[in-house]
Amino acid sequence: MSGHNYLEAAIQGEVARILQSSTGGRSRAMFAAAAALGALVGASLLNHEEIEALLVEAGLATGKPEREVRSHVQRGLRRGMENPRSVLCTDPGLVPMQAHHAGRARCAPIQARALTCPRPPEGAINTLWEAALPVTQDKAVTTYLAEVRGLDPEIVALWDLARVLPVGVHLPALARCGGRTWTESSHRLIFRTYDDAGKFVSLRARFVGQAANARKTLAPTGYTTKGLVMACPLAVQLLAGGPPDWWTAHDVVIAEGDVDFLTWATQQPECAETGPAVFGITSGAWTQGIADRVPTGARVVIRTHDDAAGDKYAEKLHATLAGRCTVLRPTPEAAS
Questions:
Q1: Which of 40, 180, 199, 183 has the alpha carbon at shortest distance from 117?
Q2: Same domain, 307 and 232
């Protein structure tokens, strides 16, 4: 088996170990999976940050609390990195470091190697979206948007920014978490996510129930949402083909999280698509490829949260856009 194929198989196998673990064995599975991949991280064959994010996402899909998941994953990675291991291969596409047993070669380290991002089946995602209803057709979600979040459900439906999964609709395995479907766990408000070519690739599901300790959002189980953003219709057009001729303002808003994405995307007037183009980001969503779709000379307003995570997002956004665009981040006082 080639080194690249081995690494891909290792990643998929350890993610599956977590997702298929029994209720009583999930903590052990997360630690073991992280330790196994941590040994490859320690050998500079895998990227630490990407592997941690992928394992945390798999752990969260089992229904475990985020703090617990991160603890198991981080401890496992540290353990594995203390005992790095190489990959033996005969892949001619990999540069050998030195001779190893009977002419075989050890693979050269793959520095900062981008992981293949497993995406859900296109047909399943499209079917799920088509089965969903406009938010205005569900009283509970309409109430959540209007009274809890202060949003106009009519505008959300008008621009098709989100839809609602009907109670009782058949859902595939990817729309399950912790043994329950998204509708059973009240994650019924769904959002499309797009790649840097403007293709609808995956979904996010938002909790609209009453439980205080429920996870706010879910991604399709077993698949990553890295490199995917939420986008209003104008933002999708930027990703897919560039700015339309009629769009002269070139104002772009990048908001953190699905609720803030809705907040800014619903500011667009009902009568005309004048902008701004609004993107919604989460951890790992923003990439240089997406940044390159923002027109040169655009005015980009960063609407991330006033906390450490929001600062980190803002720094990455600025790094990918500065020099081509005017990048602004209002202070909390100015934004309020």
A1: 199
A2: yes
Tell me the helix, strand and coil percentages in the chain, rounded to 5: 40, 15, 40
**Residue 98 resides in a domain:** yes
Tell me what the mean pLDDT of segment 89-103 comes to.
37
Contact between 60 and 66 (Cβ < 8 Å): yes
Could you write out the DSSP letters of every residue in 191-204?
Answer: EEEE-TT--EEEEE
DSSP codes, 142-196:
HHIIIIIS---HHHHHHTT--EEPPTT----GGGEETTEETTTTT--EEEEEE-T
Instruction: Based on the fold, state whether residues 156 and 103 are members of the same structural domain.
Output: no
Q: Give 105's pLDDT tier (boundaries 50, 70, 90).
A: very low
Local structure of residue 46 (DSSP, 8 states): S
Place of tokens 């752990």: 59
Q: Which domain holds residue 228?
A: 122-335
What's the rounded Cα separation, in Å, for the pair 58 and 5?
21
Rg (CA), the chain: 22
Do residues 19 and 221 touch, judged by C-beta distance below 8 A? yes
| Phi, then psi, of 121 in degrees rounded to 5 | -60, 135
User: If you average pLDDT over every residue of the chain, what do you get?
Assistant: 84
Phi, psi of 118 (to 5 degrees): -70, 125
Are 329 and 219 members of one domain?
yes
CB proximity list for 292: less than 8 A, separation 6 or greater: 196
Instruction: Please give the pLDDT value at position 94.
Output: 37
Is residue 299 classed as helix, strand or coil in its secondary structure?
strand
